[in-house]
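Lab notebook, bench 4. The sequencing result for the construct came back, and we need a structural model before the next group meeting so we can plan mutations. Quick request posted to the team channel:

Model the 3D structure of this chain.
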Amino acid sequence: MSHNNQKKIALINDFTGFGKCSITVALPVISALKIQCCPVPTSIFSNHTAYPEYFFDDYTDKMQEYIDRWKGLQLEFEGISTGFLGSAKQIEIVRRFIEDFKGENTVVIVDPVMGDDGVKYATYTEEMCEKLRELVCLSDIITPNLTECCILTDTEYREAMDYKAIRKMADRLAQMGPEKIVITGIMRDRYISNYVYEKGKKDMIIKSKRIGITRSGTGDIFSAIISADAVNGVDFMTSVRRAVQFIKKCLVISDERNIPQEDGVCFEDVLTNLL
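Done. Here's the predicted structure in token form:
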């Protein structure tokens, strides 16, 4: 009997028990959009690293054996979505996963979690950055923020980068492979902008008024919506708008409840809105 009678996304990211980020938020979002979410954990955290203390277990050496069992089941995926990857070895495992499981109709979504606010994460070596570029070459959709866009294209970061310069980076990224790109979190006065690029179509800037404080997990939610919508055949621009609006609702409710910043967003309250 086939195990492939339902649409599935393989979600490769860390698992964080508390703090609402990574697999913990992406899985229910993908499920709400009627796609089976099949996680591949890269590491296990009791809570994310913004808290004073946390438990951490690196899953790198277990990942390939875990994945090999899926090969034995002859699983097929309509989507493969990647998040934070903590080492060059993990990125290499993910590259092989894509090569092994990407079928003719599989959409690969890479969220290149590498840095923020113009700063590369301390864990990211130049080798890791180069291997992330290799993943981008295998992708159909990528969702970098402005910092990650600059790292991937070897462009000097400027907070007030104009849209002409951003378009130039999007062109360079598209030449690497992906057909669709959304550059997230571009700060403009009281607004956050998302630059949406799709080959063969006019670029679009989708703006949203800033709500409250920056919170963990919003990028994972954004990527999860984009991933599930891509598998469901939703228009890319429509998908980005939906993700932006959904996260705005999450932020409003989290502020109303006075949720601590590191605890993330109350997405559960509005999850049914995605339907």
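The domain at 8-268 is CATH 3.40.1190.20 (UDP-N-acetylmuramoyl-L-alanine:D-glutamate ligase).
Will bring this to the meeting.
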